[in-house]
Amino acid sequence: MHSGPQREIIGEREILRESHDPETIRYRDSEINTLTTLLSPTLGGGITETALIHGPPGSGKTCTTTAVLEEIETQHSVPTATVNCWKDHTPSRALYTIVESLVGDTAYDREQTPESVLLDAVEDAITEPTILFLDEADKLVEDDILRDLYEIDDVRLLFAANNRHQVVGDLEHRVYSRIGTAQDIEFEKYHDYQLVQILEDRMVAAKVNPEIVPDEAVEGIADAAGRDARKAIATLRNALDIVLIDDAECVTDPIIERARQKAEVDIARLRISSLTDQQTAVLKVLADIEPATSGTIYDEYERRIDDPSVSRTVRGWLSTKFPQYNLVTILEDEHPQEYELTAAAREIVE
């Protein structure tokens, strides 16, 4: 045991937050080059009109794109605005964020200002080619905003999502005809050896005592993360917290397992906090009746909600969006197919 206040485990804990942008982007050279070519005003045919970044959670889409946009803005003075559509999933909230990013403080209200007024404000703010990055674009509750933004002169749209189909697959024809042919940039899952390097970079930057996390522990964390960088970093941070709380000598396999479970709950809590009221209602229904088929879930959800989403939309959440974010498990061996909450989601919803 190592009791006493003088023990040093980590120097800068904030660097181990998943939201921290690393100084070096590892193993994404090809994606960076593609994005730079598409977004630079001096390369190729100038800034592309639309581009779609897609890949699984934790594959580096956001941090890579953010780094490229910062470079484009710095080197070429191209205005940019970023919207996190998990957080700002309604048209009004997304438009408000764009206005705020482009002009600074405004007299508008994120919740109360009419959408049409905010759209006019966005149009007034854009007087030259401007890149709008809609991260988690598939979380927008209405896709008309994509058409409205696309129709503004000088707007260049950049989307990011887990799956290309989730952004363009269900678009109305009038929207798809303009956006459905966006340039594709695909991000694949990291390999374990790549996650090891990413974790080692974070440990050095955060001034983690290397004796606390031996090489085999770093490899164990990478393996436990399922090729998801976000989960790997959260597991490392939680493992260090457990070492400190338990006054353990170093990170061990049992500590990694506890840290992995805690990381999954932390990530699930963040995801659930950003869901729409309708999506949260579906999870609460599932918590009460699981395991259940999509039909049974929808019937109960429809009974509880005054203005429910259509059955097709709810099935999409259950079969695609919720599983991708480790909120719902599909019981594929059951006929008809059934769904249940993951352990991490259940801990939060119940």
UniProtKB/TrEMBL annotation:
Biological process (GO), any one: DNA replication
Statement: the UniProt record of this protein carries the keyword Glycoprotein: no
Gene3D superfamilies, per database record: 1.10.8.60, P-loop containing nucleotide triphosphate hydrolases
Entry keywords, A to Z: ATP-binding, DNA replication, Nucleotide-binding
InterPro entries on file: AAA+_ATPase, AAA_22, ORC1/CDC6, P-loop_NTPase
SUPFAM superfamilies xref list: P-loop containing nucleoside triphosphate hydrolases
Domain called AAA+ ATPase: residue spans: 47-191
Gene Ontology MF term list: ATP binding; ATP hydrolysis activity
Domain of life per record: Archaea
Nucleotidyltransferase among keywords: no
Signal peptide (residue range): none
Family under the similarity heading: Belongs to the CDC6/cdc18 family.
UniProt protein name: AAA+ ATPase domain-containing protein
Originating organism: Natrinema saccharevitans
